[in-house]
Amino acid sequence: MLAAAVETEPGEEPLLPLTLESQRLWPGFARELLAATGVSVEYRDEGTLVVALNRDDAETLRHSYDFQKGLGLDIAWLNATEARRLEPHLKPGIAAAVYCKSDHQVENRSLCRALVVACRGAGVEIHEHCPVAEVVMAGGRACGVETARGRADAEIVVLAAGAWSREISGIPVAHQPPVRPIKGQMLALQMDPKAPILRHVVWLPRAYLVPRNDGRLIIGATVEERGFDTSLTAGGMLALIEGAWRGVPTIEELPIAETWVGFRPGSRDDAPMLGPSGIDGLVVATGHHRNGILLTPVSAAVMSDYILSGRLPEMARPFDPQRFAQSKSTQLAKSSPVAEAAQ
């Protein structure tokens, strides 16, 4: 989901310029990938609908709408009739909805396939199923990685291992990115591709639904602090199916096509880390939490600019990975005897 508008919450205002820029880049990025690879990333621009099922939901939605509208985001308030005109399979009697025509979607699996083809076409050597054991350090700088295939030397090492970015050894503890896995259970139902029951991305109070071109209807996602626990649970599946069913009752007739677990890379402030690690030769691109796919094109632009110029673009400076090291140093200073005496 490329939902720069409807997913913006209070406290995330500094992230908005980055997400909006990435959303702006996405149509051209998708076209460029298709031209280079012949692989469609299934970019769809029908827009996103956020649905309130009852009066309480509508009050919550109105609060979000007022906040997002105050940021200048292009969203529209719909009554029940207008919402069901866009999506007739929404249950009768919904309270209201918000429509965002600029929040689109892309098929993330197709995106990964396209990126692999594009990289190989550009001369990039990709080693799949080849775990990285550690970042190789020499003289206080990163100079390569040790892998299952042996050592690979490099002038620049980019740490972009998602939720696993803290698991790679060799990086001094003080410079390890503070990333943790945030578990998400998901499932897919199978619609008739020629007669899908939904065409827009639909957010409900307890689930979201994303229709794909092949007829799959993605339902997600739980948010769990359980480390790298890969188990699917009855409670997780029940919550998702019930949350979707309350808004779109016709899903009860659809077969379950797939279930899975993923891990979002969460940082301490749920914002990405893009740029210098504090170690020469090692740069970081991780911590994107739920915005990894949305931020793909702008993350690529930011990282390449930084590697080539040594400077972060203005919009990316709030997401310098060293902000956490600075915060820790400030906390230590405040708690020191000298600081206490000064106070």
Q: Which helices and strands occur, and which strands form pairs?
A:
Elements: H1 16-37, E1 48-52, H2 55-70, E2 76-79, H3 80-86, E3 96-100, H4 108-121, E4 132-138, E5 141-147, E6 150-153, E7 157-159, E8 180-190, E9 201-204, E10 207-211, E11 216-220, H5 234-247, E12 256-266, E13 273-276, E14 282-286, H6 296-309, H7 323-335, H8 337-342
Parallel strand pairs: 1-9, 7-14
Antiparallel strand pairs: 1-3, 2-3, 4-5, 5-6, 8-11, 8-12, 9-10, 10-11, 13-14
Structural overview:
- 31% of the residues lie in helices and 23% in strands.
- The chain has helices at residues 16-37, 55-70, 80-86, 108-121, 234-247, 296-309, 323-335, 337-342; strands at 48-52, 76-79, 96-100, 132-138, 141-147, 150-153, 157-159, 180-190, 201-204, 207-211, 216-220, 256-266, 273-276, 282-286.
- The strands form 3 sheets. It has an 8-stranded mixed β-sheet.
- Strand 4 (132-138) and strand 5 (141-147) form a beta hairpin.
- The N and C termini lie far apart (48 Å).
- Mean pLDDT is 94; it is low at 329-343.
